[in-house]
Amino acid sequence: MVGKFEGERLEQYRIAKAIELYVNEKGSLKEISEITGVTVRRIMGTLRKKNIPLRMDEEVFDKGMEHARRVFEF
């Protein structure tokens, strides 16, 4: 029982640390994920729940648009 509780607290701490790093612009989602051991998907979901907007640099935006053009043929 204690082990599970400690595991949950550690996970909560890691998520909180990931959010703190992201908000303070200490790295990309991928870098923060690697540092904290929290998946990018989990970080993004927590950001969404907390209404914290995602940062998107120009390179990421351009890659996304390129992918959309290929998929939707525009």
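The record above closes out task 2.4. Task 2.5 opens with a second protein, given below.
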Amino acid sequence: MQFGIMSVSDITRDPVTGYTPSEAERIDAVTRIAVHAEEVGLDVFAIGEHHNPPFFSSSPTTLLAHIAALTERLILTTSTTLITTNDPVRIAEEYAMLQHLSKGRMDLMLGRGNTAPVYPWFGQDIRQGLPLALENYNLLHRLWREDVVDWEGNFRGPLQGFTSTPRPLDDVPPFVWHGSIRTPEIAEQAAYYGNGYFANNIFWPKEHYQRLIDFYRRRFEAHGHGTQKEAIVGLGGQAFIAKNSQDAHDQFRPYFNEAPVYGNGPKMEDFEEMTPLSVGSPQEVIDKTLTFRDAFGDYQRQLFLVDHAGLPLKTVLEQLDLLGGEVVPVLRKELDAKREPGTAEAPTHAARVTAKYGDEEPRQPRPNANRGDNVTGGSPYQDSEQSVAAYPSM
């Protein structure tokens, strides 16, 4: 079981102090938050992708590569990468590079995105969002698994004899989660490819997410990737923790009341009752999070949203201290004790390399400068002493 945090990269006015941080301050803060997440024992840090104010994370791979250089074991991921408005060739290249730089400590979550103006900014039509997502991922999937790709579709120019570089680390593609808030189509896509499915698990009652996760599990099994228990499920969540319940509610209330997403809506206590929002003592957050397993079955990754709505850096770091020091150790123990036999383990690069190669050495692709295969239509890679000699510095 992996535990971590996710950020949507918002830049929001602090309703208590009235202060709005600059882009520079928020970028520096989120880096410190990620590093501290590792320091307190969390496993995963995730950052969203946005191309409009008030968000700053327009280039997740740049930020995650920087964080990779500052950490040693933290898994870095996205929440989400836009499979619709990004060219799948660039996704293949940028995330394979991140995979190398992080030594495999990364994966990514793909999503359609729900900010309508972003689509025309990148030459796309939101009305074609679903077929665009399906086609783009089909191409991305092939680019990471085939050295040479011939491809033609409806939403971008064709490819002839194209090789995406660098090739994935150890010739094992990054693990992909498909993130979804509302619809079953993305759950079907995740199931079809045998990928992971990540349910936002923030804004709606558990029954909404139950339907999506149950559908994904059934389709995962139907597509022949394993039993429903072997399907890979991740969940979001949102928590605000203090030493006691009253302090947690008092401290978080002004941020909840003016949050851009749900501010000026139901009062906080009603929102807690209706959704997975957890506000309270460490034990109350533990108890609420344990109900996720009761509702959705065993799962592999739990991410919490902790740095939004204008919360100052000092408060977020204190949240991480409580999350890593008092909440997650108990959750690990409790959820491990409840886990049913046959449930899939959380995905890691090392485990996926072992699954592919066993005790053999992983393939390390090397461009072969001594052969003209990339010109004649064959592979520009071969695993031989000849290719090593062509690049003696390797």
